[in-house]
Design goal:
There is one protein chain. With 354 residues, the protein is an alpha+beta fold. It has three domains: 104 residues, no CATH class; 168 residues, no CATH class; 53 residues, no CATH class. Strands 1-2-6-5 form a four-stranded mixed β-sheet, with no helix packed on it. It has a two-stranded antiparallel ribbon with strand order 3-4. Helix 3 packs across helix 5, helix 6 runs antiparallel to helix 13 and helix 7 crosses helix 13. The protein starts with a helix and ends in a 10-residue tail after the last helix.
């Protein structure tokens, strides 16, 4: 595609200028430099070409799906053909295109990934991690989320469309992972009783959804990555710009590209094995709305939350905290060993470095 060629040419110009600028610090050279993109270490021209390409690719998929679907709907034998149509590759492509379009609408605004959730010492001794996990279900979180993102244009979506795009900031699902592959004491059997935030509200429980596959880059140090990149640079180089549009995990792509250059053809399978750390984690999730799935599928404009819409957000949080106090804190306060560890806790012993 034309935009792909333009982007590659712009990227090459940018790399050439960077290389020349490293050797020459002349102010005149700085003035002649290509305009830098806000996305990272690429030029503005490369960024614009990138989004033109991605915009054209998405438009092509949508128009093709619409055309094929219209042909099906207008066919005189639609009643007998549609089931067969959906079992074919064209039908699968249409469904995937529609699902991806709907996913792009909600993935960054209606679904939240809870990266860190727990209690720091010494508060872990009184099971404060459970309190934090329960408070994530409070109307306060939904209200704060809506207030922060409700009128804020989506950066990526706006760049893709070429104009400001504001997506619905209605949080309906929260997902998280455990620290280890073994059972999580924080999420196992963790629930909020029925009727706590709404008279007819059901019991809410963090659900176990599965395990991660165990691939990543956490076990590969920066020194190792730098060594791989230096070795690969002698045989063609590795070009990862750490910007949107080039794929997932820049570090993982850099490692795989470097290994592909360094390793012999018969050793290519090793590249995949080296990025497998085998440290799987348990995946948990919870719905905040009774019709959250329908909302994410685009069947509804507004979700129905499990809490009373008239309930003040702060009061909802207080109800959850009171439930936690009665359910866990009071019992824990009777645990002498836990209280002793809290009193004897020394922050200095918890420091990574001094």
């Amino acid at each position: 595609m034309r935009s792909s060629v333009e982007r590659e040419a712009a990227m090459q110009d940018w790399r050439t200028w960077l290389k020349g600028n490293d050797e020459n610090d002349d102010d005149e050279e700085e003035e002649l430099a290509p305009e830098r993109s806000e996305l990272g270490n690429i030029s503005r021209a490369a960024e614009e070409a990138l989004y033109r390409r991605k915009r054209a690719e998405r438009l092509l998929r949508l128009l093709t799906a619409e055309q094929d679907l219209n042909l099906l709907l207008k066919h005189p034998d639609f009643a007998t053909l549609w089931r067969r149509f959906l079992t074919r590759e064209t039908g699968h492509t249409i469904i995937n295109t529609a699902l991806k379009a709907q996913k792009n609408r909600h993935i960054g605004t209606s679904i939240l990934e809870l990266n860190v959730c727990g209690a720091i010492p010494p508060y872990n001794e009184i099971l404060s991690g459970k309190l934090v996990a329960l408070l994530m279900l409070s109307p306060q979180v939904v209200a704060d989320y809506r207030r922060r993102y409700g009128d804020r244009p989506s950066d990526i979506a706006s760049r893709m469309k070429g104009e400001p795009v504001i997506r619905p900031a209605e949080l309906v699902f929260i997902g998280t992972t455990s620290l280890y592959q073994v059972g999580s004491s924080q999420y196992n059997r963790l629930k909020m009783p029925a009727g706590l935030l709404r008279p007819e509200g059901p019991e809410l429980r963090w659900e176990y959804l599965g395990e991660t596959s165990g691939y990543g880059t956490n076990h590969i140090s920066r020194i190792t990555l730098k060594s791989l990149e230096e070795a690969a640079s002698k045989n063609g180089g590795v070009y990862v710009n750490h910007i949107f549009g080039e794929g997932f995990s820049p570090k993982l792509r850099a490692i795989r590209q470097a290994l592909a250059v360094v390793l012999d053809i018969g050793q290519k399978f090793t590249a995949g094995e080296l990025t497998k750390h085998s440290m799987s984690r348990l995946v948990y999730g919870i719905w905040l709305a009774s019709d959250g799935r329908k909302f994410l599928r685009g069947e509804l404009d507004q979700p129905t939350y499990y809490f009373d819409p008239l309930l003040p957000p702060q009061e909802g949080g207080e109800r959850i905290a009171e439930y936690w106090r009665k359910r866990w804190l009071l019992r824990r306060l009777a645990h002498t060993e836990a209280l002793t560890r809290m009193v004897q806790f020394d922050p200095q012993t918890f420091l990574i470095s001094k």
